[in-house]
Write a structure and sequence with these properties.
The complex is a heterodimer. Chain A is an all-alpha fold. Chain A is built from 3 helices and no strands. Chain A has one domain: Helix Hairpins. By secondary structure, chain B is mostly helical. In chain B, strand 1 and strand 2 form a beta hairpin. In chain B, helix 4 runs antiparallel to helix 5 and helix 4 packs antiparallel against helix 11. Classes of the chains: A mainly alpha, B mainly alpha. Chains A and B meet through helix 1, helix 2 and helix 3 of A and helix 6, helix 7 and helix 10 of B. Chain A: Keywords: Cell membrane, Membrane, NAD, Oxidoreductase, Quinone, Translocase, Transmembrane, Transmembrane helix, Transport, Ubiquinone. Chain A: One of its GO terms (cellular component) is plasma membrane.
Chain lengths: 103, 502
């Protein structure tokens, strides 16, 4: 199959993965799993960028996907450090317990 | 080989134009220098890092002023990725002044909290660099990278109080919701890129115009998702839920910084992308509905929720959501008057909000922030000048003359009426009336004599730099409210100078 024949399936796959990630963020309670779901959303977006880039025959989509990968890596570094620190100041790892800031 | 060939910096290839990024380059340089200086600075000497960072900000401000005169004819640089125009430079100036004011109140606050670590200054400069890049971003890629640069720095800063659970909670909430919003932002960008074939704003605008009368549903979905991502950054309802929590939990000096600068930068991107790239009537009619309702929702939710708060930091958080709603009026309405009205509003909001948060920062003592309503009671009898300044900031946020806030609201509402959007203006005026209740309540509390049996609170003494910041912001609020044309002329010229075609 050619790139353009595959294209609708790729878009559908990306939309499906994005929805799974978004749903996971909304229903999972462990911050590390929530974080993994966010990564899933970003990677779904990468599929969209790369497949559009192939479909349109332009490099911008692939360059954008590389940018997303780099930024996601930086976000993971900060995110995991913060999650570790939350655990260290004496909490269970459950975002429902993070409710001190509420009125 | 010529001399210029040996020094590629002096003879850059066409399209590369370092001048167009001069303020950002200076600030990014300051960021790197501070990271290295932190390694060799003794803990007791860290106050000097604040001095170095203020110098870097002043240098970037000087470059911005120079660029303002140089950018009389706007252009795009770096192959269209970045807009070198007065619109971006106006926003740069607001961001840099706010950053400098925050840096001046920072060392004292951090010392009292035992948090005086050097990376604070580097992170503030890193975040400010991201914001300035966002203000001038001319391509979706730069918008994404700039948002992430400022967000990642702010995630760390909100959790800067490493041993305080509330600060950690704030950072965690900001991180998870921020990442979630980035996902939507990116998906929107991917769809816009796919349907127009470009990531540069000017080329996207041209592709939409050449599209010829049909609206692509995927493109509209992309625009809607992009708006969700940006609405999160300006904390517009219903994407605002993180705001009060993060503002309350983060160290107050960080809250002062992020409550103003993030919003200013994200609004710059919002205006540039929505009002000037997606301004095509056919597209505009669709996204206008979304922004319209988000603007009204922000005004209502922010003002009503603020009535029920008892912590000043949360009140200012909700008031910031409502102010975002007023500025969104300037995005919904496409006239030039709406754009310069929003620019004026952003400047006045920055001055008053920095001042109000600076009061909490300056008064904070070793143990806690003293931002509860109970701790404000009788402030005017012990710190008359601080209370007077606070009153002035609250009047400006509430939109009373003769302060900057009055004219800001006037310009935005007048622009809405001028574009036959009377309902929007009425919603704005109605919700402003509600906001008077909580702004005045704080003011009255400060001027109420405390009961003898109440616990007395230990407000810190105002230092020279802290008092200086309060005096400067108070003067700014009054000057912008009395000599209106001073800033207005600059805002109008910024609106005129926006890059439309690469």
């Amino acid at each position: 199959m050619t790139a353009s024949a595959n294209f609708p399936y790729l878009l559908a796959l990306a939309a499906f993965l994005f929805s799974v990630g978004a749903l996971g963020v909304l229903i999972r309670r462990n911050p590390i799993v929530v974080f993994m779901c966010i990564e899933l959303m970003l990677n779904a977006v990468n599929i969209v960028f790369v497949s559009y880039g192939r479909f349109l025959n332009s490099e911008e989509g692939q360059v954008f996907a590389f940018m997303v990968i780099v930024v996601a890596a930086a976000e993971v570094v900060v995110g995991l450090a913060l999650i570790t620190q939350v655990f260290r100041v004496g909490r269970e790892l459950d975002i429902d317990d993070l409710d001190e800031l509420n009125e | 080989m010529t001399v210029l060939g040996v020094l590629p910096v002096l003879a850059p290839p066409p399209g590369i134009d370092i001048l167009g990024l001069l303020p950002e380059v200076i600030l990014a340089g300051g960021f790197i220098v501070l990271m290295m200086l932190d390694l060799v600075t003794a803990p007791a000497q860290r106050g000097w890092l604040a001095v170095v960072s203020v110098v870097a900000v002043a240098g970037a401000f000087g470059a911005t002023v120079w660029c303002w005169f140089d950018a009389a004819t706007p252009r795009t640089v770096y192959f269209g990725a970045f807009a070198y125009d007065r619109f971006g430079l106006f926003i740069n100036a607001i961001i840099l002044v706010s950053t400098a004011l925050v840096l001046m109140i920072t060392p004292q606050y951090l010392n009292r909290r035992g948090l005086h670590y050097g990376e604070y200054y580097a992170l503030i400069l890193g975040a400010a660099t991201g914001m300035m890049l966002l203000a001038g971003a001319g391509s979706l890629m730069v918008i994404f990278l700039a948002i992430e640069l400022l967000s990642i720095a702010l995630y760390i800063l909100s959790g800067f109080n490493r041993t305080e659970p509330r600060s950690q909670e704030a950072a965690m909430k900001y991180l998870l919701l921020g990442g979630f919003a980035s996902g939507f932002l990116l998906f929107g960008m991917a769809l816009i890129y796919g349907e127009t074939g470009h990531t540069q704003l000017t080329l996207i605008a041209a592709a939409i115009t050449n599209g010829g009368g049909t609206v692509d549903p995927l493109l509209m979905a992309g625009i809607a998702l992009l708006f969700v991502g940006l609405a999160f950054k300006i904390s517009a309802a219903p994407f605002h839920t993180w705001t009060p929590d993060v503002y309350q939990g983060a160290p107050t000096s960080v809250t002062t910084f992020m409550s103003v600068t993030t919003k200013v930068a994200a609004f710059a991107a919002l205006i540039r992308v929505f009002s000037y790239t997606f301004g095509e009537p056919l597209i505009y009619d669709r996204w206008k509905i979304i922004v319209y309702f988000v603007a009204i929702a922000s005004m209502v939710v922010g003002n009503v929720a603020a009535l029920r708060q008892t912590s000043l930091k949360r009140v200012l958080g909700y008031s910031g959501i409502a102010q975002g709603g007023y500025i969104l009026i300037g995005v919904v309405v496409l006239t030039p008057a709406a754009t310069w009205g929003s620019l004026y509003y952003l400047a006045s909001y920055a001055v008053a909000n920095i001042g109000a948060f600076a009061v909490i920062t300056v008064m904070a003592n070793r143990g806690e922030d003293l931002d509860s309503y109970a701790s404000l009671r009788g402030l005017a009898f012990r710190r008359p000048y601080v209370a007077a300044a606070m009153g002035l900031f609250l009047l400006s946020l509430g939109g009373f003359p003769p302060t900057a806030g009055f004219f800001a609201k006037f310009f935005v509402f007048a622009a809405a009426i001028g574009a036959h959007e009377l309902p929007l203006a009425l919603w704005g005026i109605g919700t402003s009336a509600v906001s008077v209740f909580y702004y005045l309540r704080v003011g009255l509390l400060m001027y109420t004599r405390p009961q003898p049996d109440e616990p007395s609170y230990n407000w810190s003494r105002t230092s020279l730099s802290g008092g200086g910041v309060l005096a400067l912001t108070a003067a700014g609020t009054l000057v912008m409210g009395i000599f209106v044309t001073l800033v207005l002329n600059i805002a109008v010229s910024a609106q005129n100078g926006i890059v439309l075609h690469g």
